[in-house]
Recover the amino acids of this structure.
């Protein structure tokens, strides 16, 4: 179907931003978002079975419809695939220190991370196609399960407890959510791992609200016809950068006509080809899930790892300089540019570039891997390496400066030259 309206111009941007700010306040708080945070993926296109004939709406009205959608209860299946142009990380998670249970080095079990640690699952979900079963009942009860061929991985938030369970290894991970609900301040306990505190998106609605935060006068917003997703009639909201240099081509959000809930989110890169980001319901029910959905007791014989205990073990590992891993974090970034072509500039700890085999900091094989993943570039700033995906690119200079953004390699080099 033809678009209902043309792209919004600068004079209407304030209204769009107002709707966007409202939308950000009405997110279903998925406390187990960490399990799906890295599933920036694709189902090849909006799953449609015809274009339903719906009343015409403007982009502003549709954004306000998302904002007014106070969906607190739902259940269903979400299909997510990832096409960032990266190799599959399945089986490699342990090598990156992200957990992985039996895959993480030698020694007894107490020295290993838990196979149920959500951080290991983030790595596994960074590529390929995955099916998630999701459920939510307000801010204190959520569940996300990653369905495998013969196994299941689940994250369950129920009141003060956050559980993760990996049926393949029969391991569980437990953290306490001691904070208030979002209505009382959105504070979370120190035991809840980063990524389980609702800061990262896991549902089409949360992905959509992240995209709406970028809507300003550098953005085109329009309603581009209708679709049917998971058996429900929906409008298609299209968000596109107006600026050159962005790797983002367009974002399409399918918005449920009755509830205003985003049902599918697709991000297509400016380079064309398959989408980079797509998270969509294949089945959805807006009724109240059964209370038993959020109950969890570790099965008999399950190895249970407490979050605070694992944190203590991780602090036992130190680098050659005697510092704990994680010390000397990156400084606060400086933002170059505006809108979709924004680039973050920050400094690596110690003011040095990437470690090299010649310095003895990394093994020779690891050096070869780094060299194969990056492109060597030169400019007024000196020399550096650009690491690219189909969406995010990063330039690491030899003097330890990092330039990163959803922009092209040429845009990164230009920013580095101008900052020199």
């Amino acid at each position: 179907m033809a678009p209902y309206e043309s792209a919004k111009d600068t004079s209407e941007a304030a209204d769009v931003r107002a709707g966007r700010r409202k939308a950000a306040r009405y997110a279903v708080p998925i406390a187990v978002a960490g399990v799906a945070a890295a599933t920036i993926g694709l189902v090849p296109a909006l799953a449609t079975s015809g274009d339903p004939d719906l009343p015409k709406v403007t982009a502003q009205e549709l954004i306000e419809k998302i904002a007014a959608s106070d969906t607190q209860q739902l259940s269903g299946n979400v299909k997510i695939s990832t096409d960032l142009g990266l190799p599959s990380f399945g089986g490699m998670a342990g090598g990156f220190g992200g957990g992985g249970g039996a895959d993480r080095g030698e020694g007894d079990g107490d020295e290993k991370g838990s196979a149920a640690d959500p951080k290991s699952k983030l790595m596994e979900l960074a590529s390929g196609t995955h099916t998630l079963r999701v459920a939510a009942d307000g801010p204190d009860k959520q569940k996300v399960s990653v369905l495998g061929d013969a196994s299941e991985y689940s994250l369950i938030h129920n009141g003060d407890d956050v559980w993760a369970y990996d049926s393949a290894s029969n391991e569980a991970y437990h953290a306490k959510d001691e904070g208030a609900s979002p209505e009382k301040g959105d504070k979370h306990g120190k035991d809840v791992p980063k990524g389980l505190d609702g800061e990262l998106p896991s549902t089409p609605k949360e992905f959509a609200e992240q995209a709406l935060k970028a809507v300003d006068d550098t953005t085109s917003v329009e309603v581009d016809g209708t679709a049917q997703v998971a058996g429900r009639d929906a409008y298609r909201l299209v968000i596109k950068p107006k600026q050159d240099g962005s790797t983002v081509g367009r974002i399409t959000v399918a918005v449920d006509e009755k509830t205003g809930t985003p049902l599918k989110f697709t991000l297509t890169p400016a380079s064309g080809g398959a989408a980079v980001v797509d998270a969509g319901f294949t089945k959805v029910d807006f009724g109240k899930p059964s209370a038993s959905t959020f109950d969890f007791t570790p099965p008999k014989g399950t190895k249970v790892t407490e979050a605070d205990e694992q944190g203590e073990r991780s602090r036992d590992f130190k680098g050659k300089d005697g510092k704990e891993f994680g010390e000397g974090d990156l400084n606060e970034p400086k933002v170059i540019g505006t809108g979709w072509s924004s680039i973050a500039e920050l400094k690596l700890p110690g003011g040095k570039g990437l470690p090299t085999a010649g310095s003895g900091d990394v093994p020779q094989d690891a050096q070869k891997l780094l060299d194969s993943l990056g492109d060597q570039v030169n400019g007024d700033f000196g020399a550096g390496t650009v690491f690219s995906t189909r969406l995010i690119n990063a330039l690491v200079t030899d003097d330890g400066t990092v330039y990163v953004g959803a922009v092209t390699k040429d845009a990164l080099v230009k920013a580095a030259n101008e900052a020199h």
